[in-house]
Amino acid sequence: MAPQTEIPQTVEWQGKQVPVWSMQTINYALLLSQDPAEVEKVLNACLEEGYFYLDLESIDGGRMLRDQQETLELMKRFFAAPIELKNEYGLISSHLGYEPVGSRTGAFGAGTKDGYEMLKVSRDEIQRGSPKVPQPVKNNGDLRILENTIGSCNTITKVILSALSTGMNLTGAARFENTHRNDRPSTTTLSMMHYLPSEVTGNNKVGHQKHTDISSLTLLFSEQWGLQVRPPGTCGALEMGFVAPKPGCAFVHVGDSLRFASGMKMQSCIHRVVPFNPSEHRYSIAYFLRAEDDTMFVDSEGRYITAGQWHDEKFKAFTDPWQWQAMAPASMILGGMKEAGEDDPTGEPAQFAPNPIALQEELKKVSVQA
């Protein structure tokens, strides 16, 4: 694995300079043509870093960019609706339904909760005759938008997956796309997230916790700052740093399932979301392409398990109280990825810093209960 050695640019955040890590840019139109140089480039990005920009500014990717904008408008309408309408079905399953703010651990770990609400629509569900989606988006126009976006995301991630199979010289049943077939059950889902201003949520409900994704590939759209990654390799303290939104591009992350399927050759992207501008409403769209439920692989604990089992166990870890997460192996939340530095050598922003004495007392209580 080639280390991240370049000196990063920085941006001011919470009164200090924070790295802005670079990403390679992969051309989607060239991938679609299986251009040998671009196939090699995307493979190296996944083997060495676990993330990249995907340039969609072409006739082939333009449809996805239009779908993104329509989905963004849908999200703004949906999240402005009353809570009783948004939460009509609640969280039906881990990959379908609505999650209110504060359902998971927050960006700064112990003592914080997340600062976003989320609507999830699975690929399997949107194809049903009457999909279970909340009333504010259960109309022909919005259902069409969701179908189009899920369809576009599925095509794009399958093109990437196919290129990676080709780059690794996989053939026949060994190719990655053969465990991501459209007609087989999976937890593949479209997640739409709305991060609320801190004046609404308070300082203890903020961002999205540090983690790697369950998925094989994550196709992520956000026009606003807030996403931070930790690059593999050695460059300074390797703290979390921002990645800049890039017009016409999506972020792509390698997730745990593809890392496992590649025999641990690929890097799962360690990332989190923080409030770059605490006063703004932040929106992001993430398509999580996941392997078929019965796909088998060796996980970060050395177990031979199904993709469905890994999904269920890790989702539970995501939603566990921080006290339980503190006692769980890092191989679950971080998918076995190793950390080589501090999250933030100079400390987290003061307003989000938890009371260490109170945290110790909470851990003692949980230890006794366990």
From TrEMBL:
Molecular-function GO terms, alphabetical: metal ion binding; oxidoreductase activity
Keywords of this entry: Iron, Metal-binding, Oxidoreductase
Coiled coil spans: none
Claim: Signal is one of the keywords in the record: no
Domain Fe2OG dioxygenase, chain residue ranges per copy: 185-291
Biological process annotations from GO: small molecule biosynthetic process
Pfam family, any one: 2OG-FeII_Oxy
InterPro entries: DIOX_N (IPR026992), IPNS-like_FE2OG_OXY (IPR044861), IPNS-like_sf (IPR027443), Iron_ascorbate_oxido_reductase (IPR050231), Oxoglu/Fe-dep_dioxygenase_dom (IPR005123)
Protein's UniProt keywords contain Oxidoreductase: yes
PANTHER family attached to this UniProt entry: 2-OXOGLUTARATE (2OG) AND FE(II)-DEPENDENT OXYGENASE SUPERFAMILY PROTEIN-RELATED
Protein family per UniProt: Belongs to the iron/ascorbate-dependent oxidoreductase family.
Protein name: Fe2OG dioxygenase domain-containing protein
Species for this entry: Ampelomyces quisqualis
